[in-house]
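By convention, the token line describes the chain's fold. To illustrate:
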Amino acid sequence: MLSTHAAGPRERRLVSLVVIFSLLLFAISVPYAKMPLPHIPAFVAVYDSALFVVYLVTAVLLYGHGVTLRSSAMFLLADGFLYASAMIAPHLLTYPDVFSAEGLLGANHQTTAWIFQFWHVGFPLCVIGYSLMMPKECSKGPGIRSIFGSAGQHVSCTLLLAVLSTLLAIHGTNVLPDIMKGTFGYTHRMFWIVSAIWILNGFALYVLWRKTPRAALDLWLIVTMVAWLLEVALVAVFNAGRYDLGFYVGRVHGLLAASMVLVALVIENGRLYAHLGRAHERVRLKASELERLNATDALTGIANRRVFGETLGREWHRSLRSGRPLSLLMLDVDHFKPYNDTHGHLGGDDCLRGVAQALASCTRRASDLVARYGGEEFAILLPDTGESDASAVAQSACRAVLSLGIPHGKSSAHDCVTISVGVATFVPPPAFVGKLAGQPSSLIDAADHALYDAKQQGRNRVVVQVQPVSYHTSGFTR
């Protein structure tokens, strides 16, 4: 996060370039700061509107960081941006010649200038508070008890302070000294007041520079404070009054100062969203892989018994609803125990993997399922498959396993590894379609009986269950 991670070399170089550009622009502008230029009140309206949006969005993003980090220091920095944003509204409304000759809200020719001074006092005070509080939070941890309550309190207090500052600028004529000479010129008091504000901003820059540890956000705040110092100098020290070159160039510095932190936060948020997207994709892939592993037999790579049971139950009820046949093949490797005793567990594992791949090659439809049922026993589930087609798949499975040519000297069925297959098919009677209760275990029992018969008849063969698979409706067994 921008407010916590240290700045990298690229950020340091970019910050240095921005500061150098600001200083060059300032140095070029100072000799001509008092040059009068056309009075364009619309410029003030556009400038203040842009500042208002930039400061407000920055404040919202910083409050979000404060909530995430549980940081009072981050809230205080967000208060500074919110205060600046809140002061811009009355600054624009009271500015002479923008909405009226004297400005709105009962303003006089001193009001806007004092709002500008209050605006440039509140922000550096918040920066100083942030710079002093953040290192303590980094060492001791944040101490906010109620995040959302604290955020609401900060916002409320900041807006209240902005309202009080505005009221003081409007109605404090008898208290505040005159700093404007007419509408456009400055009195001698302006220099001393602005100098004090300039020193305050310089002190805020010093405290921020001395802050340790220094996060990437701090570098962009340093750029902001440098631009603020240059803005104050051009707008109220080196120029002669409103609408001269210093006035306009100073506003450019002000907009630069306002934008730096916002640009950095937007870029950082984009970077975080990109990281979040990549992390989400990694989690999704890991979840997909975990789901695949949970559904796969670790030895053979085909579906495991859990997936077989879930699929059988689902296809059984689908068969009940549609009236379509459902066939099941139960397969057993002939004389596997003697083979395993002869070739060892590693040889037995290789044999089972070969048989599994041979069985998988016998199915073509995505709905067909080949699973390891347990030990050397396998199952093939064939939805929408009648008895004759299921028998054909069983014969194909026998040939596929035999074609592996795995020698088996302890088998009485063949000199190579073979399988025995039991086939059972369930066809819901038309009168009971959609009404039958679920008993998929009856299909397994029927296929098991057929498999037993295949073994009894000498193995390496297919036997089809001739008795219909049992079913029941409303408690009546058929």
Summary: The CA atoms of residues 420 and 461 lie 5 Å apart. The mean pLDDT is 85. The first helix runs from residue 9 to 29. The longest strand covers residues 326-333.
